From TrEMBL:
<feature type="transmembrane region" description="Helical">
    <location>
        <begin position="238"/>
        <end position="261"/>
    </location>
</feature>
<keyword id="KW-0675">Receptor</keyword>
<keyword id="KW-0472">Membrane</keyword>
<keyword id="KW-0716">Sensory transduction</keyword>
<feature type="transmembrane region" description="Helical">
    <location>
        <begin position="140"/>
        <end position="158"/>
    </location>
</feature>
<feature type="transmembrane region" description="Helical">
    <location>
        <begin position="25"/>
        <end position="47"/>
    </location>
</feature>
<feature type="transmembrane region" description="Helical">
    <location>
        <begin position="98"/>
        <end position="120"/>
    </location>
</feature>
<dbReference type="InterPro" id="IPR050516">
    <property type="entry name" value="Olfactory_GPCR"/>
</dbReference>
<dbReference type="InterPro" id="IPR000276">
    <property type="entry name" value="GPCR_Rhodpsn"/>
</dbReference>
<dbReference type="InterPro" id="IPR017452">
    <property type="entry name" value="GPCR_Rhodpsn_7TM"/>
</dbReference>
<dbReference type="Pfam" id="PF13853">
    <property type="entry name" value="7tm_4"/>
</dbReference>
<feature type="transmembrane region" description="Helical">
    <location>
        <begin position="59"/>
        <end position="78"/>
    </location>
</feature>
<dbReference type="GO" id="GO:0004984">
    <property type="term" value="F:olfactory receptor activity"/>
</dbReference>
<comment type="similarity">
    <text>Belongs to the G-protein coupled receptor 1 family.</text>
</comment>
<keyword id="KW-0807">Transducer</keyword>
<feature type="domain" description="G-protein coupled receptors family 1 profile">
    <location>
        <begin position="41"/>
        <end position="290"/>
    </location>
</feature>
<keyword id="KW-0552">Olfaction</keyword>
């Protein structure tokens, strides 16, 4: 790992979210609460859907996968962030940094793909209801969900493998509270041309292509909703569709901002806030927007609580 007589870096120093001692206690409590809410909300969703046969449909199957992704994402980032806020001068080993990078990149890519699959599922349900049971058969749903996890795992394996080939010989101060591809590339003392090429390819596929496919699905959904004659039906459909679109737009904009604009001045200044949106805020809001507002899920949750008590 060493190069040109430089000493190889064996650990990195994470800057943390805030260096202001007066704000660290507030931020620790804030992120701890977010972490608990994200874990509780997503675990409840997985439990309710798993224990209720009436929810074993394609839509809830994909929601279960989304909840699992959110659990992994928050658990990859927030515990280390909380440690950094509690302990001054938080460090992370080289191996720990690569591990965090792998799982974070895996979750981000998989969630982008899964949002596309979920948008397609809603498109078939709303625009092609007579073909829904045929087009969204159980084997196809399993194939789509499996492809989401596998394709993203292959992509993150390539990025992590290329990152592991780079030399880090100082400085070892990461200007972030997590290990992420753009910030680590800035610390490398090896050529990063191949890494940057792979990032562009991943950006085009995960960011641009999937975003266009997702927007195409929602475009067809909105067109179909406009044909609904009932004003109440339109209102309810738009309410659900708009909340889903809000999640999609927020998630895509933050991820694209981080990975398509790495190294820019504005990206470095605002990167921490943007990262919080897709590693903490989004996993916390997803259960509320996608599931807990749903009447069927509420009924399933009541059954779970009755069984527990």
């Amino acid at each position: 790992m060493a190069a040109n007589n430089h000493t190889a870096v064996t650990e990195f120093i994470l800057q943390g979210f805030s260096e202001d001692p007066q704000l660290q206690a507030f931020f620790w409590a804030f992120f701890f609460l977010l972490y608990l809410m994200a874990l509780a909300g997503n675990i409840l969703i997985v439990t309710a859907i798993s224990l209720n046969p009436g929810l074993h449909t394609p839509m809830y199957f994909f929601l279960t996968n989304l909840a699992l992704l959110d659990i992994v994402c928050t658990s990859t980032v927030l515990p280390k962030l909380l440690e950094g806020l509690a302990v001054k001068g938080s460090t992370i080993s080289y191996q720990g940094c690569m591990t965090q990078l792998f799982f974070l990149t895996w979750c981000l890519g998989a969630e982008l793909l899964l949002l596309t699959v979920m948008a397609y599922d809603r498109y078939v349900a709303i625009c092609r209801p007579l073909h829904y049971s045929t087009w969204m058969s159980r084997p196809l749903c399993i194939l789509l969900a499996g492809s989401v996890w596998v394709v993203s795992a292959v992509s993150t394996s390539v990025h992590t493998g290329l990152m592991a080939q780079l030399s880090f010989c100082g400085p070892r101060h990461v200007s972030h509270f997590l290990c992420e591809v753009p910030t680590l590339l800035l610390l490398s003392c090896s050529p990063t041309t191949l890494n940057n090429i792979m990032i562009v390819i991943a950006d085009i596929y995960f960011g641009v292509v999937n975003f266009l496919l997702t927007m195409a699905s929602y475009g067809c959904i909105i067109t179909s909703i406009l044909r609904i004659r009932s004003a109440e039906g339109k209102r309810r459909a738009f309410s659900t569709c708009s909340s889903h679109l809000l999640v999609v737009c927020m998630y895509y904009s933050t991820v694209i901002y981080t990975y398509i604009l790495p190294g820019s001045g504005s990206s470095l200044e605002n990167g921490k806030v943007v990262a919080v949106l897709y590693t903490a805020i989004s996993p916390t809001l997803n259960p509320l927007i996608y599931s807990l507002r749903n009447k069927d899920v509420k009924v399933a949750l009541r059954k779970v609580f009755l069984c527990v008590w």
